[in-house]
Amino acid sequence: MPTESQRSMTELKDGERLDDLQRKGYRIIQNPGMFCFGMDAVLLSDFARVKSGAGCLDLGCGNSIIPILMAARNETARFTGLEIQPYSVDMASRSVALNQLENRISIVEGDIRDAAGIFGASSFDNITANPPYITDSRGIHNEKDAMTIARHEVLCTLEDVICQSALLLKRSGHFFMVHRPSRLAQIITLMSGSGLEPKRMRLIYPFIDREPNLVLIEGVAGARPQLTVESPLIVYESPGQYTPEILHIYEE
Length: 252
Prior knowledge:
Blueprint: H1 4-9, E1 17-20, E2 27-30, H2 39-47, E3 55-59, H3 65-73, E4 78-83, H4 86-98, E5 105-109, H5 115-119, E6 124-129, H6 146-151, H7 158-168, E7 169-179, H8 184-194, E8 196-205, E9 214-221, E10 228-229, E11 233-234, E12 236-238, E13 241-242, H9 244-251
Helix pairs in contact: 2-3, 7-8
């Protein structure tokens, strides 16, 4: 049973809601007025392969969705989430406490650009990242807005994420990221240049006859070049109807 301290930490604040993750009874606190996790986070947590007992870091963890989903799949790995926004840190910490995962998930407030200084070089076996996709900052009215920070490169860039990950990973450690296919050339160039050799990639298509809108990619620190391109993942059979593979990922 949760302690009195745990109950006080998990009380919902104004604008928040509690969502069922359909994994081991785990739930997560979200605020639709700030930002809610999307399919990209779910797909990344499924794509990432983590060995038993591994130490894992999620860069820009938001409300801790990726560490919680991955903790549900691997009961011996240890997870750390790094997040720069204080409110998101608080919300993530309360979700971790709500699920009684404090002994397996730690939430740290800090800047991705300083991650190697915060944790030290060669500190993790695995790193996951679902960074902002958009470089164009035109039309942004508030650079401190939570949705802006999640979507636009105002507090960190793709290069920051990849370069810090290369420093943080142990040799032969694994880097997993979800991003936009339009930036794939830049992603591969940055990864190879930082010593994170791209090893596995999968493109995500909304429908079988559409262009891909997401890419999942894995890199290994210090590995030799050899990239495996996995079969495409199709999200919808028809409007509003998920494919069997997507349904399986959500139900795992």
